[in-house]
Amino acid sequence: GESVGLHLPTLSVQEGDNSIINCAYSNSASDYFIWYKQESGKGPQFIIDIRSNMDKRQGQRVTVLLNKTVKHLSLQIAATQPGDSAVYFCAENYHTGNQFYFGTGTSLTVIP
Amino acid sequence: EAGVAQSPRYKIIEKRQSVAFWCNPISGHATLYWYQQILGQGPKLLIQFQNNGVVDDSQLPKDRFSAERLKGVDSTLKIQPAKLEDSAVYLCASSLQGRANEKLFFGSGTQLSVL
Predict the structure, then answer these.
(1) In this structure, how many other beta carbons lie within 10 angstroms of the beta carbon of residue B1?
(2) Cβ <8 Å between B42 and A99
(3) How many Cβ atoms are within 10 Å of A91's Cβ, its own excluded?
(4) I need a surface site. Which of A26, A69, B88, B96 has the fewest CB within 10 A?
């Protein structure tokens, strides 16, 4: 099947700065996307989702942007905190059976 | 609301041995998934259940992996015999009805080391 990929495998930011994590997807039929956060030793935790009929969605300190033209997702984290240090995955859904396909992930490190 | 429960948290076995993992999804969730996450990679879907039926097991290595969800609630995933390349975290996830565009909720996983 087609894969979901991430541009940057690692990202380091200063505490208080904004973070941007990018994700490229290749299946134009994907219609639903989720960003997950995975801390060491834990399972993926839902952060925010977006449907393909939207370009932007905001949550608490997080914003997801979807550009269908270039098949690109980004996750923006405002005022990054040490607790945001984790691996972030984007997952795409293009199967009617609600199956998700994950990219490799980006490791975010927040420097105090 | 209780989350997805998995056990054990860790398992170390030798190659060619067998191992089983258990998962109890969020109460009321009809759809259950098993994912395999190799170190440094994203989770990869192994099998999806809807109640006690299999929706998709196309990525499950059926010569050594098996899974069941007999009563449509909890599930077990078995590997027999294990190979070195099976070392990974096995994640269980559930969703409410398995309809398109539903959120998946994950357990903490079972970390398997095959020596």
Answers:
(1) 6
(2) no
(3) 25
(4) A69
Q: What is the pLDDT of residues A76-111, one digit of tens each?
A: 999 999 999 999 999 998 766 678 889 889 999 999
A103: chain B residues, CB-CB within 8 Å: 42
Cα A112 from Cα B66, distance rounded (Å): 45
Tell me the C-alpha distance between B82 and A78, whole Å: 44
Q: Minimal Cα–Cα distance from A56 to chain B, Å?
A: 17
Residue ranges of E strands in B51-114: 53-56, 65-68, 75-79, 88-95, 105-106, 110-114
- Rounded to an integer, what distance in angstroms lies between the CA atom of residue B38 and that of residue B21? 16
Alpha carbon separation from B114 to A58, A72, B15, B42 (Å, rounded): 42, 37, 6, 20
- Interval B11-41: pLDDT, tens: 999 999 999 999 999 999 999 999 999 988 8
Query: Between chains, do B103 and A43 touch, taking CB under 8 Å as contact?
Result: no
Task: Give the integer Cα–Cα distance in Å for A63 and A10.
Answer: 19
Please give the distance of CA B66 from its chain centroid, rounded to a whole number: 10
